[in-house]
Amino acid sequence: MLSSPPTIVLGASLLGIPIAYILNTLKMKPNTHDMFTNFTDGDNTVMMLGFLSLGLMVLLTYLGFKLTKIRDKRPSSQIIDPLFFVFSICCFSSVVDLLIGLENDGVISGFVAFYLNDGEPYLRTAHGTCICYWDGTGHYIMYIYMLYSLFSGKSIRNCGLYWVGSIVHSLVVFLPGNVAGPYPVKASFLLNVPFVVVPIWSAVRFLQERPTAKNISAKRAEVRMETYQSIWTRPLDILICFYFIAATVVSFFRGFVALGCCKWYVEDYEPYLNDPVLYPKLQMFVYLFYFIPYYIMSIYGVIRQGCCWMNDWSIIHAGAAAQAQVAFIGSSIHHSTPIEYRLPQTYQAQCVFWVINLSLLIIPQFIAYKFMKRSSLFNQDKISMKNKAY
Q1: What is the torsional sign of CA 68, 69, 73, 74?
Q2: CA–CA dist 72, 232 (Å, integer)
Q3: For residue 285, what pLDDT is reported?
Q4: CA–CA gap between residue 92 and residue 81 (Å, rounded)
């Protein structure tokens, strides 16, 4: 197991630590040879170093697979799942992002200062620090799980959909915020392109792998009774509908607050919405224009039943909500946020802030878990059973 493909990918990703340290030391050292100093100067060079590092991860993963095939005497024609290369790149990025978060908070030093100065300076913000922590911990754990599940022949579809929701949401807020914010956009901005293309490709793959309806004759009567009960006989589902209604109202209100309405709410409860970095405003717009349609369609799906998309999109939304709220809550209390934009210390503001944001964080996780456990509610095959029953 020590030389298995997942271990090779994870081991290669840890090379991000010495690579970052060596590049940073050579760049920041005053007496460094002029040749290297000139080589690492400029936005384009930082971008090229980033792409070379990502290419190195892919190469190491490929060579590792070839060596394990030779050692285990497996057929050379055996196809390597492209997801191994995807997770190789993403694992390396997660390690570097964790270094960025730790260096921003002063826990470590001398690893990524040159990248923050010459590459992506907006990662020094509270929002940048929080998304780096999430990528370096939450996403990295997902990669470990999915790598070993792939190697063991287990399905990674649910975890993959959760990861897709999380990373795509992160980029939906992060990339426009970089362009519209006060920080300069440099060539290293293009390093985010693979992390846009790859999750979209992965999402298409995972969604196409939706399991087809199977023979359920042994549980036909039980499933029909469970699936087609009236909403009024399902108290838990009624509460879920009330949550979606409440989340819609809150998202609608905060979206208009981000547009400049209800200044009293910003001043008294969530001043972070006025932070000039623009990430919190964009977060509220994502809730307004993307999450609200999901809430409305989910109310229909819970009442109507048989909507096969409900399970998948509840997982994607749970991942997006986790990333959104971790970044928003963390940024609201982070020391990098100017004190006038941090969470007020009044009891009333604390209560309102934590009730709203923890609800938007925790309840979607519960809903996704509940829908996965009762997937028969969202199987189109059960609809045909219902029609036959009548």
Answers
A1: positive
A2: 58
A3: 96
A4: 18
pLDDT digits (tens, 9 = 90+) for 197-248: 999 999 999 998 876 544 444 444 444 445 567 888 889 999 999 999 999 9
How many CB atoms are located within 10 Å of the residue 130 CB?
Answer: 24
Residue with tokens 């819970």: 302
Question: Residue 231: helix, strand or coil by DSSP?
Answer: helix
Residues 126 and 114 sit within 8 Å (Cβ to Cβ):
no
- 162 in Cβ contact with 135 (< 8 Å): no
Question: What distance in Å separates the CA atoms of residue 342 and residue 167, rounded to the nearest whole number?
Answer: 25
- What is the number of residues in the chain? 390
Q: Which two tokens stand for residue 235?
A: 């108290």
Single-letter amino acid code for the residue at 295: Y
- Rg of the chain in Å (alpha carbons): 24
**Which tokens belong to 293?**
């349609």
- 174 closest CA partner among 324, 341, 338, 290: 324
Structure-block tokens of residue 16: 């991000």
Helices and strands counted in the chain (H then E) = 18, 0
Written as six digits, the tokens of 29 are 């050292």
What does the DSSP assignment read for 311-363? HHHHHHHHHHHHHHHHHHHHHHH-TTS-GGGSPP-SHHHHHHHHHHHHHHHHH
Closest C-alpha to 133, from 323, 374, 296, 390: 323
CA distance 238 to 145: 34
